[in-house]
Amino acid sequence: xxxxxxxxxxxxxxxxxxxxxxxxxxxxxxxxxxxxxxxxxxxxxxxxxxxxxxxxxxxxxxxxxxxxxxxxxxxxxxxxxxxxxxxxxxxxxxxxxxxxxxxxxxxxxxxxxxxxxxxxxxxxxxxxxxxxxxxxxxxxxxxxxxxxxxxxxxxxxxxxxxxxxxxxxxxxxxxxxxxxxxxxxxxxxxxxxxxxxxxxxxxxxxxxxxxxxxxxxxxxxxxxxxxxxxxxxxxxxxxxxxx
Length: 243
What we know:
It is a single chain. The chain has nine helices and eight strands. It starts with a strand and ends in a 6-residue tail after the last helix. The protein is α/β, with parallel strands linked by helices.
């Protein structure tokens, strides 16, 4: 019974017609998220309560690669900082050469305007949850994902999220995010600005995202995977009933 298990409905809908797979014989089993990332949503404060000495902390965790668009995020953060928002944005993750070259070039172009953007580099997985716990907002600007575990981590961490509208992100985050085109710095600015200016929206979205994240567990992932395999095995080995 060689039938695929997809991580998201978006993947099933995209791949099934190309691979000529019968959707009825497939299933969707999403990944889980580690309990380490679970932080109940924090109280949201006015952006006016932050300052250069106590900045509002924006986090983007992801490998620096061509479809992750860290350079567009950097440009957006520089614009927000220039508009007077007391923010700092940490870009966290290892880098592929082409992506790092693009990011470095953008930071060089921005010059002093890039002061609000910091490339932290790779952080060990067992320490990542600490960064989520210290952040105030998460940006996720990928344009190509199968199952965005990093987005799940931010949801579980109770963070308000400005997110790429490319699939499957809206399937996972649903109405708990403010969406943007990941290739448009202007749209990233608009999405983050909307969240910065509204503690109420941040609080609502963070609570909703945290609630949605509770359904993603590795126990569920394992259970549904084995259930599907058991059904496949039963169908394969079932003997026809003699007439």
